[in-house]
What does this fold into?
Amino acid sequence: MGRHSDAKQRILDSARVLFHARSYSAVGIQEICDHAAVKKGSFYHFFPSKQALTLELLDQSWLGFEQAFISSLLNPERPALQRIVHFFKLGCEMQQRLLDKTGCVLGCPFGNLAMELSTQDDLLRAKLQVFFQRMETVLEKALLEAIRTGELAENTDTKLSAKAMLAYLEGLLLMAKTGNNLQDFTVLSEMALKLITNRCKD
Amino acid sequence: MGRHSDAKQRILDSARVLFHARSYSAVGIQEICDHAAVKKGSFYHFFPSKQALTLELLDQSWLGFEQAFISSLLNPERPALQRIVHFFKLGCEMQQRLLDKTGCVLGCPFGNLAMELSTQDDLLRAKLQVFFQRMETVLEKALLEAIRTGELAENTDTKLSAKAMLAYLEGLLLMAKTGNNLQDFTVLSEMALKLITNRCKD
It folds into this structure.
């Protein structure tokens, strides 16, 4: 079951898997310890609380998300707008892999926690808000690049468009999770670019 | 604290308020009973479980939602597309009222539970899926009416457009909840009509 030196990472990995499969409140520290095959004392050696574990877990998850998803939005090999379509496609592929593995559409690990915890834990809420803002910033970068290359009009409201597209993606993930079905996800996600909007002229 | 004959409704009202303010898992039967000022035995007289309570609560919430929101989508006094804009506006106004009252953007009561429970409770998931499908159907009716009155092209894909708009609304509510802020909600929700899409010609 791995050495003691892996214990902290095993706890983080277990919490990530269990929270994603169910929810934050549904998973207790004891269950995380059992899943990670560590003693409860070991948990408290590394983390003062479930909240502290989750804050660290979120930072780790963000790094994984950056490598797997954000990098594709910044990759200059594709035209900028196609990168956004590809970003949505990667999201769908990840959901499909998890569905194949678990039998459930698990949804966005950040969106899930944000929905469950935003009214209950202001530290976790604020961290998740920062992550969404970062995603918006990277979507906006792709839109700015699309303006630069002439794919989009100069007066595109990049900030508003990025916010709209991210909200749409999160909403699609919620709908897919509720239907436990990715059937419409691809065709719906291809409609995200319709949300690109121009600034008013006044 | 009201008569025994109100006890069932008080339990339902308490569960609705507490689930919406926090989450399903975070609120236990004892807390619901305390909030409703009923004894735990009384709870089990009416409901065999928290799940049974929630199934009944959801049916009641749907009736309230129909009166407050769905009716506006079917109201012939407004042109059909304006009804959709108005539907989003009503959602924003309700969130603002709850924010003023509680200090928190509480989000969609259906979306919250769907996100939290879809992988954990298949009965609740299926009921929430039906509600979302009903919302899509009513949005689609407004789009069909807009085709009839010439506001939209004949080849509008009403089903896909309705799905996209509902997902977008749920995503906007999640983003507002995560930011605990309705600042962008109005301007973003006005962009929902951009998701109206036409059928492919093949």
Q: What stands out?
A: Chain A has nine helices and no strands.
